[in-house]
Amino acid sequence: MPNRLDLPAGFRWGVSTAAYQIEGAVEEDGRGPSVWDVFAARPGVIRDGHTGAVACDHYHRYPEDIALMKGLGLDGYRFSIAWPRVQPTGAGPVNPAGLAFYDRLVDALLAAGITPLPTLFHWDLPQGLEAPSTSGSAAGGGWLNRDTAYRFAEYAAIVADRLDDRISTWITLNEPFVHMVYGYALGIHAPGRALMLDALPAAHHQLLGHGLAAAVLRERGLEVMIANNLTPVWPASSSDADLAAADAYDALHNRLFTDPLLLGRYPDLSAYGVGPDLGGCVHDGDLKLISATPLDGLGVNYYNPTRIAAPTDPGLPFAEAPIDGVPRTAFDWPVVPDGLRELLVGLRDRYGAALPPITITENGCSTTAAVDDQPRIDYLAGHLDALAEAVAQGVDVRGYYTWSLIDNLEWSEGFNQKFGLVCVDFETQRRTPRASYGWYRELIAAHRGRFAK
Ligand code: FCB
Predict the structure, then answer these.
(1) What's the CATH number of domain 4-449, 1.10.10.10, 3.10.20.30, 3.20.19.10, 3.20.20.80?
(2) Looking at ligand 1, which residue's alpha carbon is closest to its atom 9?
(3) Which terminus of the chain is more exposed, N or C, with fewer CB under 10 A?
């Protein structure tokens, strides 16, 4: 059995973060409000009333965080750029001080020998695009509004023009599935809309935004990726009803966000009573636009498989079923390392030659451990071995970015779910590397050592 040390030469090691989860400084240097600032201010939506107002204070402490990355010996760092820092209302004037922050960050990364891998949108939409003031130039409604896709491409051009001399590979969106479901269908993430299936335009408009931004990046000679949250879907039994439910869930979670990019079409969503135009939001030519710029890489965020049974109530064509008999993370997510191998082999089988090289852009777990986080080491080791197995089975995987470098604001869970290789004391902002930090550093060194002359 191959293991993590058998990953190929040149395999890239990294960590991932996202702007709203770590930066803080939400009112500094001209940053405009994002949907997350507004959502977090609503009582009861985030555990313990936590917000991203200060978070890890990374906006000021980035040199220390880059030193931690350098200590790991990383090849790359995946972070996200906060659109409201760059364009405070999401449309119109650029905020030079916001762009200057990313300039400093990128220069410091490069000076540390770390390749920056930016994500242009990790859920912190400028509030001006959600609910514009009367003076705003945008129409509102966030990703429910087609116009947001065009604004996104404009913003992508602004950022690329500033950083394309130093960054060659870009990620457009983070997890459009999770953003649509939590933000627009269930309302447990910003912008807090609970529209159920009427949230589908938020999927299409994000993908349209991807396509438009991808063209902007490609015109500048840049490489384009997207980071999708993908899950192997396990039918709860082999009954026809459970199989049909699992197929419907797979279409919504996985294929809805990957088929249009790789195959230029939407999957069959008839189980949801929705036709190929997703209720009318898909215009002629949109799918062509979405797939016109081939992906240079597919980012895969993997945490766990999903077990699906026939629906128990008539609202949706599936019901989620528990996965028993496996360890669970502090977040109560099932730990199934082989699910990563299954997912990757499944992608290769489904998309064949249309599948670009894969990078794992997120994978990790929350633990309760202060410093001695053996469960995280076990989680990472298991998943990396499963990844090596997928590579041995012929899947082209180029890198692995663990979530996350430091504990951070875990969205509606606040600071209560701790995903960091480095522990953060949110009172003092003191960073303390956990056991997993040392483990990851040694793994990276040992893997590289195998190929050193
Ligand atoms: C993913 C998100 C990331 C982080 C991890 C735990 O869905 O992309 O921001 O919250 O989950």
Answers:
(1) 3.20.20.80
(2) 18
(3) C
